[in-house]
From TrEMBL:
Name of the featured protein: Calcineurin-like phosphoesterase domain-containing protein
UniProt record similarity statement: Belongs to the UPF0046 family.
Pfam families: Metallophos (PF00149)
Entry's Gene Ontology molecular function annotations: hydrolase activity
């Protein structure tokens, strides 16, 4: 928990949910998901995750990064997948980054995706890098 000018900010941190969200989260101000929110980063898994984050209205902010299972969000993993696809080893390589780079997610839902960048919460002054 961070304390700023006599105000406490409760941060809830989770990871490795792998498209399973059938658990109860404690209350807090900011939720941080530190990767592996999907099984393999497929578009429907990313959409499901974003829908789940939107439903978590008890958190002012929902900050997340991609993990190794969320490979379609990682440019290097996506490139490897694409090369394998061209060599005849078909697999789902659809880029889904556009789903999480939509600015309205931050504005309307407090959802922040970090990819080698810094985010400073203007309410608490806390910095997050992912």
């Amino acid at each position: 928990m961070a304390t700023r000018a006599n105000k406490t900010t409760r941060i809830v941190c989770i990871s490795d949910t792998h498209s399973r969200y059938d658990f109860v989260l404690p209350s807090g101000d900011i939720l941080v998901h530190t990767g592996d929110f999907s099984k393999s980063g497929l578009q429907d898994e990313v959409e499901y995750f974003i829908t789940w984050l939107k439903s978590l209205t008890k958190y002012r902010l929902k900050i997340f990064i991609a993990g190794n299972h969320d490979h379609t969000l990682d440019p290097i993993s996506y490139e490897r997948c694409w090369k394998r696809w061209h060599r005849g080893r078909k697999q789902n390589c659809a880029p889904v980054g556009h789903l999480i780079h939509d600015r309205s997610l931050a504005t309307n839902f407090g959802i922040i995706y970090l990819e080698e960048q810094l985010f400073v919460d203007n309410v608490t002054g806390l910095s997050f890098y992912g």
